[in-house]
């Protein structure tokens, strides 16, 4: 039976002769010759400061001597374009020889990874182009390196096969065929006539509406990213030159890129503050990337850098300290204002915090920025901002029905409430404090 034969097979594979049914069998009689697996390298070089160490690394050098038994099949380069352009890196690439494939993953890999989202938005755009603008594909302004050896740039679902034959496979690579998306919608029964009815039912002009504040909903999908919605993030454009984020879940920067395209750097420079309602990760885990990309945007546009006002529960600081101390220096990118200090009636605000709040109000031309504690998790807050021109925007974050929010939200021009659960799900809403 199979269990009895397994030790025999194992011994033969390990190079030992065995006796089976009175006959001695050697590995050479039954096993094919050894076939060492292909070698591949995954290399991350964040900046030029690592180049000398990489170029002098003895482990890499063993695979750059041209020996057939030391041939590298594939090198995956997670390197910024600036590193890829460096002559030292180029020379290091060449030493692997013509038999090595090179895959580059960096800021210039702009392939679409979520075609379903693009498809839905393209079809909704046929109904109302202003409410559903077409999504864009963000392209880095970083000049592409001209390499002395052939390279392949990463694409979503691109595959490289090592066995039985070494080759690239592109049949699953995601593509966005806008014409096909439109054709599919137009082929639906009554689609065009229903769209015509919808447009005729709308007023020709929206009437006398102020341009600002402009609200851009980047994520309304509650706790989990989906193909049609991302997690919590709302951009409030208070003027042509000032924006504020209400919560900042994972993927917020990507949503900004898809909405604004090449204008995203200026949008990041316009962003002067982020409000984080509470410490659940779907509301703040996109913050770090926003900070890093915002810093890059200021440098790319040649504008003077200014720290971001971060209005958040003070419990966010241990997380930021941990990242700052062990990953990347970021604390210089923020000016912290604790949500606790902005609750009406708070009297223990320190002088520096008072200066920060005053600067925040001045930056957005606000008469008031206030918070209140809401019924969700511990240290969860809503916020209210009142502009000097008279409008008032209130954002609830996650909460159950809450008297403090009702009082703070009185006379609001706009209330943004994350109403996660519909009627009939009251029991679940109570369990999740929503």
Distinctive features:
16 helices; four-stranded parallel sheet; 434 residues; single chain; alpha/beta; 20% strand; globular; six-stranded mixed sheet
Percent range for β-strand residues: 15-25%
Task: Give me the Rg, rounded.
Answer: 29 Å
Name the strands of the widest sheet in spatial order: 9-10-11-12-13-14
CATH class of the largest domain: Alpha Beta
Gross CATH architecture of the largest domain: 4-Layer Sandwich
How far apart lie the N and C ends?
Answer: 59 Å
Structural class of the secondary structure composition?
A: alpha/beta
Describe this structure as you would to a colleague.
The protein folds into 4 domains: 1-30, no CATH class; 39-107 and 148-169, no CATH class; 112-141 and 172-202, no CATH class; 212-432, Metallo-beta-lactamase, Chain A. 32% of the residues lie in helices and 20% in strands. It is built from 16 helices and 18 strands. It has a 6-stranded mixed sheet with strand order 9-10-11-12-13-14, with helices on both faces. A 4-stranded parallel sheet has the order 3-4-5-6, with no helix packed on it. Helix 7 (115-125) packs across helix 8 (178-186) and helix 11 packs across helix 12 (287-301). The termini are far apart. The model has no long low-confidence stretch (mean pLDDT 90).
């Amino acid at each position: 039976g199979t269990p009895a034969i397994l030790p025999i097979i194992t011994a033969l594979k390990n190079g030992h002769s065995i006796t089976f049914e009175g006959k001695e069998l050697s590995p050479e009689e039954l096993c094919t010759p050894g076939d060492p697996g292909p070698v591949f390298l995954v290399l991350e070089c964040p900046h030029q400061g690592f180049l000398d160490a990489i170029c002098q690394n003895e482990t890499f050098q063993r695979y750059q001597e041209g020996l057939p038994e030391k041939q590298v099949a594939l090198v995956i380069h997670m390197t910024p374009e600036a590193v890829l352009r460096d002559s030292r890196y180029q020379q290091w690439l060449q030493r692997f020889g013509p038999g090595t494939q090179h895959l580059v993953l960096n800021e210039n890999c702009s392939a679409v990874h979520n075609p379903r989202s693009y498809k839905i938005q393209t079809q909704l755009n046929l109904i109302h182009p202003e409410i559903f603008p077409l999504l864009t594909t963000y392209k880095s302004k970083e000049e592409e390196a001209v390499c002395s050896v052939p390279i392949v740039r990463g694409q979503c679902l691109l595959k490289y096969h090592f066995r039985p034959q070494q080759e690239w496979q592109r049949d699953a690579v995601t593509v966005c065929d806008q014409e096909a998306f439109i054709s599919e919608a137009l082929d639906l029964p009554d689609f065009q006539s229903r769209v015509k009815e919808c447009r005729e039912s709308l007023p020709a002009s929206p009437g006398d509406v102020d341009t600002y504040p402009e609200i851009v909903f980047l994520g309304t999908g509650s706790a989990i990213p989906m193909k049609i919605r991302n997690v919590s993030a709302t951009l409030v454009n208070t003027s042509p030159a000032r924006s504020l984020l209400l919560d900042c879940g994972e993927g917020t920067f990507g949503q900004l890129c898809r909405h604004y395209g090449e204008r995203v750097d200026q949008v990041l420079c316009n962003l002067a503050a982020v409000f984080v309602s509470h410490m659940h990760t779907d509301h703040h885990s996109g913050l770090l990337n926003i900070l890093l990309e915002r810093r890059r945007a200021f440098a790319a546009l040649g504008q003077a850098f200014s720290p971001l006002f971060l209005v958040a529960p003070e419990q966010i600081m241990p997380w930021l300290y941990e990242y700052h101390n062990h990953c990347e220096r970021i604390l210089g990118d923020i000016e912290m204002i604790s949500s606790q200090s902005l609750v009406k009636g708070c009297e223990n605000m320190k002088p520096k915090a008072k200066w920060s709040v005053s600067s925040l109000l001045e930056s957005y031309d606000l008469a008031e920025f206030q918070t209140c504690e809401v019924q969700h998790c511990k240290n969860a807050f809503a916020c209210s901002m009142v502009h000097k021109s008279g409008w008032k925007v209130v954002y609830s974050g996650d909460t159950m029905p809450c008297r403090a929010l009702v009082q703070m939200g009185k006379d609001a021009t706009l209330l943004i409430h994350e109403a996660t659960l519909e009627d009939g799900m009251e029991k679940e809403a109570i369990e999740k404090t929503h």
